[in-house]
Amino acid sequence: MRLWAISDLHVSHRRNREALDDIPSRPDDWLILAGDVSDGARGLDRCFRHLSTKFRQIVWTPGNHELWSHAGAAGGLRGVALYERLVDIARSYGVLTPADPWPIFPHPRGPVLIAPLFLLYDYSFRPSHVSAERVIEWASAANSVCADEMLLHPEPFPDRASWCASLCREAAARLASCPEEIPKVLINHFPLEEELAVLPRIPRFSPWCGTRLTRGWHRRFNACAVIYGHLHIRGTTWLDGVPFQEVSLGYPSQWEAERGIGAYLQEVTLAFP
Length: 273
What we know:
The chain is α/β, with parallel strands linked by helices. The chain has a single domain (about 5-265), classed as Metallo-dependent phosphatases (Purple Acid Phosphatase, chain A, domain 2). The chain is built from seven helices and ten strands. The strands form two sheets. The chain has a six-stranded mixed β-sheet. Strands 3-2-1-10 form a four-stranded mixed β-sheet, with no helix packed on it. The longest helix is centred in the middle third of the chain and has 18 residues, at about 160-175. The protein starts with a strand and ends in a 6-residue tail after the last strand.
C-alpha cells in the first residue's frame, strides 16, 4: 500500500479533464487531492466519480478554485454553504474531507495520521512595509490581484481573513487533541510556511498563499510530511527534517501532456523519527 498526492488538477480546462482517463489504476493505494480540482463545484463530481474507482481511498482538501461562486452555479451557494456542498459531493463517493474523522494510513513502519486541513489565507504573507489595508493596492500595481477577490465569498464571515482565523483555531485545537506520538501528514492547499510562498514570476501574489498562523505547525504537531499545492511549482523542501511537498499539476501549459497525468502523481515522502 502506497500514499500518493497531487493537487491543482484544474479539470475545468478541457485538456486536464480529458487526461484524467490516463491516470493508472492503483486499487491498493491511497490518493491525496490537495485542492483546486476544479473551478467551483463544476467538475468535482466527475473527478471524484472517476478517481474513486482507481484508488482504495481518496483524501481531499479544497483549494480556492473550488470555493469560487459563479453566477447560477451550485444553486448560488457561497462561502461556508458552498464548502458544505462540496463536502457532500465528496462523501457521496467515499472521499474523505477536512470535515470527516481523520484516517490512519497503515504504513509498514507504523500508523500515520492523515490530516486534511482547510485553512485559507489572511494576507499576512506580505512584506512588512505593506499594511493589510494596502495589500490589494500593492498587488494591483503589478497586476497580481487574485481572482478570489471577485469570486471567493466568505459568508457568513465578514471577510476571508476572519474565516481563515476561525478555521485555523479549529484545526489547531483538533490537531492538539490527537495523540502527540503518532506521526502526521498535514495536508493543506496553501503552504503552511511563509518561506515557501515564493513565486518568482508573480511575487506580489503571496498574500493569497497562506497565513502566518500556521508557522511551526509541522514541529508543534509532529508532522512526518506536509503536502500542499497552489503555487504550481512542484518540488520538495525540507524544513526541520520534515519534507514539504508541493504536488501541483497546474494549467495545461504547465505540464507535458505526452507524459500523462499519472507521471505527475507524487509518492508522499514520510520522515519518521
